[in-house]
């Protein structure tokens, strides 16, 4: 027969453990980080939206690329990666028709056609691909960065140097050419001196 004190002790220990775990659970559920979204943005509905962007008309290219104007497709990436390569489509193919890109400045479109005209497809699409990583989003970001670099390179206008600067450059080139010819003549003369005498010389 089990003593009554033993039963009392068992019941008390179970009640204490249940109260401890319930208190711990309440504390865990009630805890909120100081950098939680509700703390940082108390009046926000926490809905993620893309903000509207109005480009500056004074700038040829502000860095903004409208995603709805691009044709983006995904495919299986090549290279090592095991069977996961055949399952996940991480390769990004970004293209847009350069002649119909109304979001680009006409000067930039003309320069892009001059610099990358050979890369255009038969339909007039400028194609940019990326499969450097195994992440679809990172490859998309890489394509967009390549496109931004191409546009920024095309947006740079080279200034013509002043006539005085052109004359200085021409004088430097002439001086370098004369120095090069003088050095060749001196080296040729030293080679002639190192040659052994021939029968004709004797």
From TrEMBL:
GO terms for molecular function: peptidyl-tRNA hydrolase activity; translation release factor activity, codon nonspecific. Residues 182-202 are annotated as: Disordered. InterPro entries: Mito_Release_Factor_mL62, Pep_chain_release_fac_I. GO terms for biological process: mitochondrial translational termination. The keyword Hydrolase applies. GO terms for cellular component: mitochondrial large ribosomal subunit. The keyword Secreted does not apply. It comes from the Eukaryota. Keywords: Hydrolase. Residues 76-92 form the Prokaryotic-type class I peptide chain release factors domain. Its EC number is 3.1.1.29. Pfam families: RF-1. Belongs to the prokaryotic/mitochondrial release factor family. Mitochondrion-specific ribosomal protein mL62 subfamily. PANTHER family: LARGE RIBOSOMAL SUBUNIT PROTEIN ML62, PEPTIDE CHAIN RELEASE FACTOR. This is Large ribosomal subunit protein mL62. It comes from Papilio xuthus (Asian swallowtail butterfly).
């Amino acid at each position: 027969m089990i003593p009554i004190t033993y039963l009392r002790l068992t019941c008390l220990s179970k009640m204490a453990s249940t109260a401890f775990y319930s208190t711990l659970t309440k504390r865990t559920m009630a805890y909120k980080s100081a950098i939680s979204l509700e703390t940082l943005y108390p009046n926000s509905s926490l809905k993620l939206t893309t903000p509207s962007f109005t480009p500056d008309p004074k700038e040829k290219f502000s860095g903004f690329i409208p995603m709805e104007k691009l044709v983006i497709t995904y495919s299986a990436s090549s290279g090592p990666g095991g069977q996961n390569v055949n399952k996940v489509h991480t390769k990004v193919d970004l293209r847009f028709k350069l002649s119909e890109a109304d979001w680009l400045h006409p000067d930039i479109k003309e320069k892009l056609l001059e610099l990358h005209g050979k890369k255009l497809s038969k339909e007039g699409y400028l194609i940019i691909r990326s499969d450097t990583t195994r992440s679809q989003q990172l490859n998309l970001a890489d394509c967009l960065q390549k496109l931004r670099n191409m546009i920024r390179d095309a947006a740079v206008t080279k200034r013509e140097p002043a006539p005085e600067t052109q004359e200085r450059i021409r004088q430097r080139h002439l001086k370098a050419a004369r120095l090069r010819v003088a050095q060749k003549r001196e080296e040729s003369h030293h080679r002639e001196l190192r040659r052994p005498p021939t029968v004709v010389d004797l």
